[in-house]
Amino acid sequence: MARAGGHRSLMRSTAAMRLLALFLLLPLAGCATLSPESAFWDWFQSRAADLKAVKQSDAPIMDTLHQRLHAVHAGLTYEMSLHDGPVRELIISGDGLVALVPVVHRLTAAAPNMDGWKVTAFRPRMPNFMGYSLTFGEDTHDLKSIWMYPIVDGDHFDLILYHPQYREEERGRFTNALYVALDMALGEFDVMTGIRHIDFQKLPENPEQQGLLPFARLREVFDNFYSRRGR
């Protein structure tokens, strides 16, 4: 009898331990951490109305948006339309870094359907990119004054851009603006993945005589090159 009773006590003790373990596990299941992408979109949805009310790019919530993107991955950035139309566009950008291509794809693929919002991966081409003047920092750049020299090397497309005021000692001042011009012409993804090497030089006096082409022809030349390769 003692042995039988001891066996029943062991069974009760084991059942109690299993029940206790179940109670301990339940809170842990509810506290499973969100993926960085899900956490970002949860925050975005919670502040969507505030973001849609923004009229200026220096609004405090825009700094928070940038910080939330960096919590997903350092280097991510954004552009957001500020018009009063029914749909605003949020562009998620890798800021020209090829390593961030899969990061941008993951984040935009995780975006929920949201009324009044369009989420776009990478800065898109601008339909009439030559119709804009480009202001970057304190400088305004006339895209009609920029020339180019495309170089085809087998399956690779290289490019030299020529700016009339370019100075090597102020390289960053010009290259940052010209990369924006490239994104306007080709879209950020094609610039990152379709151009192997990019160089920048000062525009010579007679660009046409030296075989250079106007920047306005970049999209045509680039697309023709890749259409022949079935891209």
Describe the protein's topology.
Blueprint lengths: L1 H29 L5 H11 L1 H5 L7 H13 L4 E4 L7 E6 L7 H9 L7 E5 L11 E4 L2 E4 L4 E7 L2 E8 L7 H16 L1 H7 L3 E5 L10 E2 L3 H10 L4
Parallel strand pairs: 2-3, 7-8
Antiparallel strand pairs: 1-2, 4-5, 6-7, 6-9
Helix pairs in contact: 2-4, 6-7
Describe this structure in words.
With 231 residues, the chain is of the alpha/beta class. It has eight helices and nine strands. It has helices spanning 2-30, 36-46, 48-52, 60-72, 101-109, 171-186, 188-194, 218-227, and strands at residues 77-80, 88-93, 117-121, 133-136, 139-142, 147-153, 156-163, 198-202, 213-214. Strands 8-7-6-9 form a four-stranded mixed beta sheet, with helices on one face. The protein has a three-stranded mixed beta sheet with strand order 1-2-3, with helices on one face. Helix 6 (171-186) packs across helix 7.
